[in-house]
Amino acid sequence: MSDAPIFAPGAQVRVKDDWPERRGPCHIRTPHYIRGRTGTVVRPLGAFANPEDLAFARPAPKRTLYHVLFEQPPIWNEGKPGDTVMVEVFEHWLERA
Amino acid sequence: MPDDRPIPAIHDMGGIARFHCTPVEHDEAPPDAFGKKVDALRQLLAQKKLMTVDELRRGIESIPEAEYFALGYYERWLRSITALMVEKGIVEKDILP
């Protein structure tokens, strides 16, 4: 199956450092504060239509969505060691770290 | 956050210091007559296959910051709907006030 998740729970992944503000008209739904950051895959959540395409009414192939866990203090410059931030991120916005 | 990063669009506000520690609003008002009309327009356009909520969201998120905060919730919807109809050539820009 081509739509099987490519990242397993525990995999280290980096969120692509891609910015709509830099690239031009596009629709990336990763929060700005995790772009370029490394996190850990918690679990795949299933495959859903790519919001980047839906936003422009284009045909939207399904993409695997993941829960990805990040350490909070380096991201927001606040919190205690051990605090975490979990974000839902689509597979095509991630790369192996 | 490194200085070479673009300033994120206004909807992407997680971790931004000026939004820290603001109380959560629990008294969310139901839509007023204007809001209901805007929502009815959105539903009608969706039924006619002229727009989707994903496109609506892209339009809302591309509103410049100064305008974004000057507009009310459903005013942002209407601003996005209008921009989408012009973008698709369904409404001519000239007829807008």
TrEMBL record, chain A:
Residues 4-95 form the Nitrile hydratase beta subunit domain. It comes from the Bacteria. InterPro entries: CN_hydtase_beta_dom_C, Elect_transpt_acc-like_dom_sf. Pfam families: NHase_beta_C (PF02211). This is Nitrile hydratase beta subunit domain-containing protein. It comes from Roseomonas fluvialis.
Automatic annotation (TrEMBL), chain B:
It holds the Pfam family NHase_beta_N. Residues 10-94 form the Nitrile hydratase beta subunit-like N-terminal domain. It comes from the Bacteria. Gene3D superfamilies: Nitrile hydratase, beta subunit. InterPro entries: CN_hydtase_beta-like_N, CN_hydtase_beta_C, Elect_transpt_acc-like_dom_sf. SUPFAM superfamilies: Electron transport accessory proteins. This is Nitrile hydratase beta subunit-like N-terminal domain-containing protein.
